Structure formats: structure tokens, C-alpha cells
Batch of 2 targets.
Target 1
Amino acid sequence: HGHVQEQIGIGLTGKYGVIVEDEKKDFVNNTIYYAPPYKKHSGFNDNEEIATSFNIFIPKKYNKKVDIS
């Protein structure tokens, strides 16, 4: 998929694959990927281990008010 925002992902746990345009990389703890605006990108986990990441969207992707009370 692609979107108007820049996307930066930071690997936290596990391992999964990331594709940005035609470049495929393994994404693991402390790995960073960057997807420029409108560039196609995707992630996939083809193993049984849970993988997590922290994603940053610039500008923010959603304009929803969040109530944390």
C-alpha cells in the first residue's frame, strides 16, 4: 500500500520482512525502515514468532482525539 505520509518503522521484537518499492529486507530489533510519501510498502511475517514495531507517520496519519482517562 502507499499513503501521503512518510512512514518510519523501528523493529522492537521478532523478525519480519519489509518491502519498500522493490527493496526487500529482514526487519528485526533496532532495524529502521523508511517509506517516503506515496511509495508502495508492505510488511509480512512468514514465521511463527510474534514480531512488533513502532511506526511513526509524518504528518500524523489520524486526526482522532484519544481519551486516555
Target 2
Amino acid sequence: MILKIIKWSSLSILALTLLMVTYYFYLYFSFDTKNLPENHGKVHTQLYLGEGDNQPLIVGIGGSEGGNAWTSDHWKSQRDRFIAQGYAFLALGYFGMEGLPKKLDRISLESVHQAISDASKNAKINGHCIALIGGSKGAELSLSLASIYPDIKAVVGIVPGHAIFAGLTDAMTTSSFTLNDKQLPFVPVPWSTTPSLIMGDLHGAWIEMLKNKEAVKRAAIKIENINGPLLFVSATKDEMWPSTAMSEEMINRLKKNKFPF
């Protein structure tokens, strides 16, 4: 009886695994990689202003949770602290809201930058002093923006990535970001990550991705081009991806390129 139970349990697990793999193959090969996502280039912003003039602008950019995270009650005390210190604060959402792309997939860098630029033209804001603060994929986005647009004068990257990775779709076959509607080079997700992904081990999957040194080199964010100081805040026990190792890689890149800030 026990042997029969073990046998049927093993067969059930095998059948379920095969079903999952088949479904993933379907998602992989059916995903539309040619046409840009619906609502591509749409961005949501909420501007918070203090009483004074000439306010430096801090832009808060969320991560893989989607929506406009910095507008939530969870971040209200931090927003209020920035305002009390004399900053203006722009909360920016770029996917996962009505009217925006559904997924973090091929997000338009120029559209995000345009939204920031538009906010900086407010009469109370000092448009020459713009800083970004982003967490996780939001840090990846913040660093990518600052490496391209020199009007961004500082970046705080919370548990950041050092390269551009695949978009957060079911297929994971497209870049997270585009520039002028062209996908930026990204680190692909190899088939060898499948066991980790099935087990929900995202950190293990990222370790596997980072073994592709050539892809990482091509997709590395050119942080040495950023026109101001950087702060990285990482987690040595990060369960999502190796943020400390990637932060250290960026620090080494800055030293190698004699980063002046």
C-alpha cells in the first residue's frame, strides 16, 4: 500500500512538472516580442510641494511591486520628512496601474525622463537639482536614467542591480527598458534557471543568470556617466537577487573609471 502511494505521488509530481514546463514553453514561444506593450510610454506622477521656492526635486521610483508605491500611506512619513527638509517630491509609477503598461516590460526611458523633466519645470522647483531614489528594479531604472540624462544629479539605489535584466513578464524574453523604442541590451534568463524559478528561488535564478559574463558586460549600466554622487544600500541576505555583490561590482567599476563624484 505504501509503495503504491509513493508510486502515484511520484507520478503526480512528474506529471505536474511536465505540465508546468509545457505551459512555460507555450508562454515563451507565444509571447509578442515584436510589438511594444499596450500603453507603452505612459507614466503616472504625483507631485508633493512644500511652501518654499527653489526646492530641489527628489523622485521616488518603486520596484517590481508596480503601481506608484511612493504615493501610498506606507511612505507618507518619509515623503513628509523630505518636504519638511525643503525638498519637493515626485512619486512616479511606470507600470501596473490603469492606463500604464501592465507589466514591467520594455519601459520607455525617455517617457519616464520626460515626466521628471515636466515636473521640474514647476515654478517652485529648482530644475538644476534632481535626485532619484529607487528600490530594486526601481534602482535599476534610476541608475539607467541617470547614466543617460545629465540633468539627474544624484541617485540613491536601494538593493540595486548593476545591469539591465529581462522584463518581468511570464516569458522573460524582452528587456526591462527601451530607449527611443529600441530594447536596451539585457541579461537573458537561461533555461538553467528553471529549477530555481519553479522552487521560487529568485536569488538562485539570478546567480545562474550572472554566470553569463558576456551578457552582463553588454547589459552593464554605464554608471560612470552619471553626473553626480551615488549611494548604494544593499542587503547581504537579499532573498531576491545578490544586491550586495552587484553594488560592489558597481563600486569597482566607478573606481576603475575614476568616477569624480
